[in-house]
Amino acid sequence: MEKLLIIPTYNEKENVASVIETVFSLQQNFHILIIDDNSPDGTGAIVRGLFSKYNGKLFLEEREGKLGLGTAYILGFRWAISRGYQYIFEMDCDFSHDPHDLDKLYKACKYDGADVAVGSRYVKGGNVKNWPSIRVNLSKGASIYTRLITFMPVKDPTAGFVCYTSNVLEAINLDEISFVGYAFQIEMKFAAWKLGFIIKEVPITFIDRKYGISKMNKGIVKEGIFGVLKLKWMSMFKNYRSRVKNINENSAYQNEKVLVEGK
């Protein structure tokens, strides 16, 4: 029980069974947690129908309504930590992220020293396919804008194809993560960077969805633009380190002190 892939869904009936079956066909010992926001198209029912085929490997959390990407992932992170997973992955359900690239992210964390591995469109070797030029320019502009405001050395800060090691998620105070849209992705990377964790970008090819409807809207864009400014300002007051982590570290320090003084 080492690797958990978290996939938030809302109206993904065309994609959800295929993406689940593709991930399991890779035979890389992933477990999958689907977090569905009460999709009216029956996405959750499709997942439940696969339980018997993937018994003990496929899980579903169903929420009462559309509560946002960020809160879905935070639920998933807590679910993963409580069950002892070491490597926790994020991925979209629409095949814009190629499941075959999951192993690249895993190897970056397992063997190459990364605490956070980001599937990046904007490092050497990365690419975007089937997006209109206006959306590519908007995405690239958002990345440059984020780096200029935050100084965070990540070329694709809005990327949603990520692997976190468990120690990162345990160290971050998830209660302090305030964004729910795609700015959530920026804030999580920012929190990890502020806490001194190593972020490694792995080149991927991002392919626009074939089925279903994009969740991008004006509100998400607005959150991204103004959220980065808010993030920079609030970082002077926020403590992204988990209080639980601090307690554990203090306890470890006290125990070590007792052992040393007892010599």
TrEMBL record:
Keyword Glycosyltransferase: yes
GO molecular function ontology, one term from the record: dolichyl-phosphate beta-D-mannosyltransferase activity
UniProtKB keywords: Glycosyltransferase, Transferase
GO terms for biological process, alphabetical: glycolipid biosynthetic process
InterPro entries with a match to the protein in the record: DPM1-like (IPR039528), Glyco_trans_2-like (IPR001173), Nucleotide-diphossugar_trans (IPR029044)
Superkingdom field: Bacteria
Domain Glycosyltransferase 2-like, chain residue ranges per copy: 5-150
Gene3D superfamilies: Spore Coat Polysaccharide Biosynthesis Protein SpsA, Chain A (3.90.550.10)
Stated family: Belongs to the glycosyltransferase 2 family.
Name assigned to this protein: Polyprenol monophosphomannose synthase
